[in-house]
Write a structure and sequence with these properties.
The structure holds two protein chains of two kinds.
Chain A (H helix, E strand, L loop, with lengths): L2 E6 L5 H9 L16 E5 L2 E5 L11 H13 L3 E7 L3 H11 L6 E6 L1 H7 L1 E3 L1 H8 L3 E3 L8 H14 L10 H12 L12 H10 L2 H5 L6 H18 L3 H20 E3 L9 H4 L5 H45 L4 H19 L2 H16 L2 H15 L7 H6 L4 H6 L7 H10 L9 H11 L6 H23 L20 H35 L13 H9 L11 H9 L6 H9 L5 H4 L2 H13 L4 H11 L2 H29 L1
Parallel strand pairs in A: 1-3, 1-4, 4-5, 5-7
Antiparallel strand pairs in A: 2-3, 6-8
Helix pairs in contact in A: 3-11, 5-11, 7-8, 7-10, 13-14, 13-15, 14-22, 14-25, 15-22, 20-27, 22-25, 23-24, 24-25, 27-29, 28-29
Chain B lengths: L2 H30 L19 H4 L1
The chains are: A mainly alpha, B mainly alpha.
């Protein structure tokens, strides 16, 4: 079995190609940095790996390090360089580095469907001659050229033809040639190429130097002299000189192989979407529209229908159970536990489906990447990385992958801060709680839903500013985010994302929620002496009353709300099922008032996330002490915010 | 006479089946989210595998 590695610039369509080749459904997003770890699959009996997108093999970010380490250490039998055909020159910069690794290289010119639109034609034969690599033109999203690519993969694996090495100016080449001739270069780790090693020595690449023994004094002096002469000759540092040389090679090849005919005039939506004054209001308007459509419009109809359906089912099953003399314990578990708990959560499926669908469309069409661009400056001004916006956007779906995606942030402090603030963004699991409260206490006031998002963003900003104020070193870094082109969302991508998120939600209802509903029912129906009692005398009430006083200042110091918060640690949707089992959604008005409902929503929004997200936080923070701080900060922040919201609401109402 | 026994048995069976299904799904999910998902079987792929760093 041979190994193939898919590599290329971020957002060039590697994962789409990976999915097309392997028939899998890995997550594809229309922004750079979706793949932060390698994914593996099989194609024609060969092992194929999808690596994170990188611009170069000089590793600056964790995903660049991962890709470089993989290619150098694992020595794949074939590297497929996925090239965005509409950005040939920039993509060839990475190609010039891949060519030096001494592995067979195949160029897959992706996005051929966009070439005509952009007025570009590529001479594949010439490109193949100039790089020494086979070239195939494909469209991974449309599925064109895949057959030819598969044939070329087999041919390349058989022939094992090596690419041509890009040559730099004579002034640099003479140093490279001298270094290669030195015996010291024979000590390079297995699989590394001499020329590549010589360039890394000139560049003083830290990762490479760390893998080499101390050079002899004479050789060290020569290298230092060579660096000095290069700096004097080009008036730049060595790394920049090599980068420049590579770009010259890439430019030369692109110029020779690419024919630009015309460029169609297009309306530039970015003039508005990324403008200084229009961007944020547009973002708020779009999010408001998303919530109006999902929670306001669809939720308005479907919630009451589904509630009636589950109430009808409960009533009839209870009547039937009574008639058939089913034991109250069994009928109670079935009706007041399972149907009440799971039913309460399933009530929100239609509106969540629409919400997930709309968020997927926004991601896939490229709009979400604009939000990252808009937020970059704000993020950096408060000690976060511009890249922090990516976890925050993914966090609207689920905090677990969002926290994991913070790995792309280079600086440790910024990464850790992002991990701590990401759960402030309301995930899909918290939506049923908000929808429940909004339905009962703020009917018709759908605009409160986007305000919840703004509150989450505000919590991110405040935490960031505080961390910034306390940080003595004030790390900053530039965020290079390439704005992906707008595209008509691919129906397949949208469907897969929406389906996965919705099914995940339904699956949770059928698993964690079902089990927790049964446990909650039993605990709320029996005393510690295992006597069937009224809920107020139950085990659950006794346990809930222990912590309930803590929440009295927030307006929900009753045991039902407290135990719901506790079950929310398992999964946030459990809050709805627990309230449904212990109170009954129709009786919420007897326990909550609009101000306490808002306070409750605020606490749920900002307090520590579910156990899955907490374990993801632990993995990314890598320390129990940091995790404890994060959880305490989130919960403390949530408490103060809920208190303030309640006080403000009481003053205003 | 047998009706209550049969009804109780059926309801208990339904509850047990639901619990069994929930536990089995959770167990499978747990397996899917660890290194087991990073296999080299046909059409397999790490779906956002949390452990991918140590899987391969």
């Amino acid at each position: 079995m041979q190994t193939i590695a898919l590599i290329g610039n971020p957002n060039c369509g590697k994962t789409t190609l990976f999915n097309t080749l392997t028939g899998t459904t890995a997550y594809v997003g229309n922004w750079p940095g979706v793949t932060v770890e390698k994914k593996e699959g099989m194609v024609n009996g060969h092992r194929i790996l999808d690596l994170p997108g990188i611009y170069s093999l000089s590793p600056y970010s964790p995903e660049e390090k991962l890709s470089r380490r993989y290619i150098l250490d694992e020595q794949p039998d074939l590297i497929i360089d996925v090239i965005d055909a509409t950005n040939l020159e920039r993509s060839l910069y990475l190609t010039t580095q891949l060519a030096e690794l001494g592995r067979p290289l195949l160029l897959a010119l992706n996005m051929e469907d966009l070439l005509e639109k952009e007025g570009i034609r590529i001479d594949r034969k010439r490109l193949s001659q100039m790089t020494g690599c086979p070239v195939v033109q494909i469209s991974a999203s449309k599925g064109t050229g895949i057959k030819a690519l598969l044939e070329e993969i087999e041919r390349s694996l058989d022939q094992k033809r090596l690419p041509m090495q890009p040559l730099f100016s004579n002034f640099i080449e003479r140093y490279i040639t001298t270094i290669i001739k030195d015996d010291y270069l024979h000590q390079i780790p297995k699989g590394r190429q001499m020329r590549w090693a010589a360039i890394k020595l000139l560049e003083a690449d830290e990762l490479f130097l760390a893998s080499m023994p101390q050079p002899p004094q004479a050789f060290q002096t020569y290298i230092e002299q060579a660096r000095k002469e290069l700096v004097e000759h080009y008036d730049d540092d060595v790394q920049a000189i090599i980068i420049d040389q590579r770009y010259k090679v890439a430019e030369h090849i692109a110029k020779d192989c690419q024919i630009r005919t015309k460029k169609a005039k297009q309306f530039n939506f970015d003039n508005l979407a990324t403008s200084k004054f229009g961007a944020i209001p547009l973002f708020i308007a779009i999010m408001a529209a998303v919530f109006y459509l999902s929670i306001g419009l669809v939720g308005g109809y479907t919630t009451s229908w589904l509630e009636s359906f589950f109430a009808f089912a409960s009533l009839h099953i209870q009547v039937l159970s009574d008639a058939l003399q089913v034991h109250p314990l069994l009928s109670g578990i079935l009706v007041d536990g399972i149907i009440a708990g799971v039913g309460a959560v399933l009530t929100f499926v239609p509106q969540l489906f629409v919400l997930f669908l709309l968020l997927s469309i926004l991601e896939d069409c490229g709009y979400m990447a604009r939000i990252a661009f808009i937020m970059d400056r704000l993020m950096r001004s408060m000690g976060l990385s511009g890249k922090s916006i990516i976890p925050l956007v993914i966090g609207t779906g689920c905090s677990v992958p969002a926290i994991m995606s913070s790995r792309t942030i280079e600086h440790q402090k910024q990464r850790e801060l992002t991990v701590i603030v990401t759960p402030f963004i309301p995930c899909g699991a918290k939506m049923p709680v908000f929808a429940l409260m909004l339905t009962y206490f703020f009917p018709g006031k759908w605009f409160i839903a986007p305000l919840i998002y703004l509150l989450g963003i505000l919590a991110v900003v405040i935490t960031g500013l505080l961390a910034r104020a306390l940080d003595k070193h004030k790390e900053t870094n530039a965020f290079i985010l390439e704005l992906p082109r707008y595209q008509i969302p691919a129906a397949k991508n949208i469907w897969l994302q929406t389906k996965d998120r919705t099914l995940g939600f339904i699956q949770k209802a059928g698993t964690i929620i079902l089990l927790s509903s049964i446990i909650i029912y039993l605990l709320s129906s029996y005393s510690f002496t295992l006597q069937a009692v009224d809920a107020e005398l139950s085990m659950l009430a006794t346990m809930g009353r222990l912590i309930a006083p803590l929440f009295a200042p927030l307006g929900f110091g009753f045991w039902q709300a407290s135990v719901a918060l506790l079950t929310g640690i398992a999964a946030k949707e459990s809050i709805v099922s627990t309230l449904s089992v212990t109170i009954g959604t129709s009786s919420l008005g007897s326990f909550f008032t609009p101000d306490t409902a808002l306070s409750y929503m605020t606490f749920i929004l900002l307090s520590s996330p579910c156990i899955a997200a907490i374990s993801a936080m632990f993995k990314e923070l890598g320390s129990k002490r940091k995790l404890l701080f994060a959880v305490l900060w989130q919960t403390g922040f949530a408490y103060v915010a809920a208190l303030l919201i309640r006080s403000a609401t009481l003053l205003l109402l | 006479m047998y009706t209550p026994i049969i009804s109780n048995f059926i309801v208990a069976l339904i509850i047990l089946l639901l619990i069994g299904f929930a536990i089995r799904t959770l167990h499978r999910q747990g397996k899917k989210e660890n290194c087991a998902s990073c296999g080299t079987k046909k059409n397999s792929a790490c779906k956002g595998c949390k452990f991918a760093d140590s899987c391969h």
